[in-house]
Every structure is written in structure tokens, then in C-alpha cells.
Design brief:
- This protein has one domain.
- It is 64% helix and 0% strand.
- Helix 4 packs antiparallel against helix 5.
- The longest helix is centred in the C-terminal third of the chain and has 21 residues.
- The two termini are 23 Å apart.
Length: 118
């Protein structure tokens, strides 16, 4: 159960967002992958932003990739992801505390490799 939760919450769909958001890799955008960021952008975008996503997502053109990243920034997705990561980290830690019969350190080590907080 805990492994599924960790895997579901933060698979490698979302690359760690550093303080410089534009260091985010382009491959998910270029390859038209439905990632956490893309799903959030689709759900939160205005009509104008959605048009940009539709026209630019899946392109290998650097200018179009930059437009998608700009929409991500306009929607404050870097902060939204950081908030989401903290909340899911807290949920996972609570579940780890309830584990019986298996050393908690195993799951804590796995969580440490997934989460870039704490």
C-alpha cells in the first residue's frame, strides 16, 4: 500500500523544480507526456493559456517549449508542486508511522529518495 502511494504521488512525472524553474527538462513537453504539471496546467488555465498549451505542447521548437513553461509559471505551478509535495510527504510519513512488522527505515529511505524536502 505505502509503495503504491509513494509511486502514485511522485513518480518521475515531475522533475524536481529548483529555484530556477527554467532548468526543468524539455522532454516531457516535447514528447507530449501527460505529467502532473501538464494536468495541472490544463485544469487551471484560462482560454488563452489553453490555446498556447494546445499549440505548443508536443513541439520540439524551443520557443514553443518556452511558451509552455511560461504558462506553467503564470499558473504558479512551481509553488503548487512544492505545496503538493509537502502535503504528500506528510501523508506518506503518517502512513509509515502506522506500519507494523516491517522496519520503518526501509520506507523512510525510499521516501527520502523521492522527496526533496525535509
Amino acid at each position: 500500500m505505502i509503495l503504491s502511494l509513494i509511486g502514485f504521488l511522485l513518480r518521475k512525472d515531475v522533475i524536481f523544480i529548483s529555484s530556477n524553474f527554467f532548468t526543468l527538462g524539455n522532454s516531457d513537453i516535447e514528447n507530449f507526456r501527460l505529467t502532473w504539471l501538464a494536468a495541472q496546467a490544463i485544469n487551471r488555465s484560462s482560454a488563452h493559456q489553453m490555446k498556447i498549451i494546445e499549440e505548443c505542447y508536443g513541439s520540439h521548437d524551443e520557443a514553443k517549449i518556452l511558451k509552455v513553461k511560461q504558462v506553467y509559471n503564470e499558473l504558479d505551478l512551481p509553488q503548487l508542486f512544492k505545496d503538493y509535495e509537502e502535503q504528500s510527504h506528510d501523508v506518506v510519513q503518517k502512513k509509515i508511522e502506522k506500519i507494523r512488522g516491517v522496519p520503518k527505515e526501509v520506507f523512510q529511505a525510499m521516501a527520502k529518495n523521492i522527496y526533496r524536502i525535509h
